[in-house]
Amino acid sequence: MNILLLHSTYGRRPAVEAAAERLRSAGHEVTAPDLFEGRTFEDVEEGREYRDATGTEELLRRAVREAAPLSERGLVYAGFSLGGALAQNLALGDERARGLLLLHGTSDIAEGATADGLPVQLHVAEPDPFEPDDWLSAWYLNMRRTGADVEIFRYRGAGHLYTDPALPDYDEAAAEATWRTATGFLDSL
């Protein structure tokens, strides 16, 4: 499976490359571009400042440039938090998308978006201050309206970016459960 893996607001940190290597070891081709042009952040507020200064539209353009040469073969779009939001936008705009794997983040869904039969898997902390219950319920219903086949996995007590071992949110048990489930999802596509 060809996977485009997009990083979080922290930038393309070692955890992103470790995730890409994990997926490669499972037999997948993974592209993990650096949308922040070499910048990484230790503090989420600094990352958000960079994201806001750059603009979400520009980050989306950068992601589209990375995806364009790969999408002809059919991509699985994947991402962490901000990267998940960008991946969701790309997948909903690509009729050849093979799947969507969201880790820690979602995005608004454009009016009239369609994703007939698109397999979607979301892994998120419970509770998650960036993905509250009301938001996730509405997001789920809206994704189902697009025609997507959606699964949500919640991890009680985990922090927002619980798959990154270098962050205080890290939860080893939740991270391993996420990767087992996500690998099974990718293998099924």
Word description of this protein:
- This protein has about 190 residues and is α/β, with parallel strands linked by helices.
- The relative contact order is 0.15.
- It has one domain (about 1-189): Alpha/Beta hydrolase fold, catalytic domain (Rossmann fold, 3-Layer(aba) Sandwich).
- The chain is built from six helices and six strands.
Provide a quick synopsis of the model.
The protein has 189 residues and is α/β, with parallel strands linked by helices. The chain has helices spanning 14-25, 44-54, 56-71, 82-92, 133-146, 172-188, and strands at 2-6, 29-31, 75-80, 99-103, 119-126, 149-156.
Q: What is the straight-line distance between the termini? A: 8 Å
Could you tell me the mean pLDDT?
96
The CATH superfamily appears as: Alpha/Beta hydrolase fold, catalytic domain
Number of strands: 6
What shape does the CA trace take?
globular
The ordered string of helix (H) and strand (E) elements is EHEHHEHEEHEH
Number of helical segments with 4 or more residues? 6
**Spans where pLDDT lies below 50 across 5 or more residues:** none
| Amount of beta strand | 15-25%
Kindly name the structural category.
Answer: alpha/beta
| CATH domain topology | Rossmann fold
Helix content: 40-55%
* Tally of distinct domains: 1
User: What's the story with the biggest beta sheet?
Assistant: 6 strands, parallel
In spatial order, strands of the major sheet run 2-1-3-4-5-6
Radius of gyration: 15 Å
Second-tier CATH architecture: 3-Layer(aba) Sandwich
CATH class type: Alpha Beta
